[in-house]
Design a protein that fits this description.
Layout (H helix, E strand, L loop, with lengths): L1 H31 L2 H6 L3 E10 L3 E11 L3 E8 L8 E6 L2 E6 L2 E4 L2 H17 L10 E5 L4 E6 L2 E8 L5 E8 L9 E8 L2 E3 L2 E3 L2 E6 L2 E13 L1
Antiparallel strand pairs: 1-2, 1-15, 2-3, 3-4, 4-5, 5-6, 7-8, 8-9, 9-10, 10-11, 11-14, 12-13, 14-15
C-alpha cells in the first residue's frame, strides 16, 4: 500500500511541471485572443510614432505591415518632415530593399538578414507559430518563460505576466554589417491594443547590448 501511494505521489509530482507548462502557453494564447483568432491572422498592420536612439534621438512616424514569416514593409518618415518624405524598408525572406521616391535599392545581404531577424519577432508575438510542426519550445512555468526555436527566427525567449500577457522577450540578432558578435536584445511590452479580438502591446521598447535602441508607440493596430 505504501509503495502504491509513493508511486502515485511521484507520478503526480512529475506531471505537475508539465501541466503548469502547458497551462502557461494556454493562458498566453487565451489572453492574446484565443487560438482560433490567432491562427486566422495572415496580416498585421500598425501605425504610430517611434524614437530611434542613434547619436541623437530621431523621431519618426511609421506605418508597418507584416505577413507572418513571409514579408514585411515599414514606411517611415521624420516627424519634422511628414509622410511626404517617406522611406520604405521591404523584407522578403532573407532579402530586403529600401525604397524612396520610386527608387528601389537592394540591401546588402548581412543587413537583409539582420532585418529579417528583427521582423521575425512580430511573427512569434502572434504565438500561433509556436504550434507549427517545425517549431520547438521549452517552458519554464515558474519564470513564466517560453524559449522558442523556429527556423524562420533567431532563438527567442518570450516572458509572460501572471495574467498571460506578453511582458518581455530576449534574443540575439546578427549585426547589420555582418561583423562582430550577435547583438543581444531585450524587448519590453506595455499596454494593450485590440483588433478583431486579437490583443497586441501598445508600447514596444528594444535595447541592444544594454543600451536603448528603439521605442515604438502604436496609434492604430489592425489584423486581417
Amino acid at each position: 500500500m505504501l509503495k502504491t501511494i509513493f508511486a502515485l505521489s511521484l507520478t503526480l509530482a512529475l506531471m505537475a511541471p508539465a501541466a503548469q507548462a502547458q497551462s502557461l502557453l494556454d493562458k498566453a494564447v487565451t489572453h492574446a485572443g484565443g487560438e482560433a483568432r490567432l491562427k486566422a491572422v495572415h496580416q498585421l498592420h500598425w501605425t504610430g510614432t517611434a524614437t530611434v536612439f542613434a547619436k541623437d534621438k530621431i523621431e519618426i512616424g511609421t506605418s508597418t505591415t507584416v505577413h507572418p514569416f513571409k514579408d514585411a514593409r515599414s514606411d517611415t518618415w521624420l516627424v519634422s518632415d511628414g509622410p511626404a518624405k517617406t522611406r520604405s524598408l521591404i523584407v522578403e525572406g532573407d532579402h530586403g530593399w529600401t525604397e524612396m521616391g520610386g527608387d528601389r535599392k537592394p540591401l546588402p545581404p548581412a543587413q537583409a538578414r539582420h532585418e529579417a531577424a528583427q521582423y521575425s519577432l512580430y511573427s512569434l508575438m502572434l504565438l500561433s507559430p509556436l504550434r507549427d510542426p517545425q517549431a520547438m519550445f521549452t517552458i519554464d512555468a515558474i519564470k513564466g518563460e517560453i524559449a522558442v526555436t523556429h527556423p524562420a527566427a533567431p532563438p527567442t525567449v518570450l516572458v509572460f505576466a501572471k495574467d498571460g500577457s506578453l511582458k518581455s522577450a530576449r534574443n540575439m540578432v546578427p549585426t547589420p554589417d555582418g561583423k562582430g558578435p550577435p547583438i543581444h536584445q531585450v524587448i519590453r511590452f506595455e499596454g494593450d491594443i485590440v483588433s478583431r479580438g486579437v490583443h497586441w502591446p501598445r508600447h514596444i521598447t528594444i535595447s541592444q547590448n544594454g543600451k536603448p535602441y528603439y521605442e515604438l508607440k502604436l496609434e492604430q493596430f489592425e489584423v486581417h
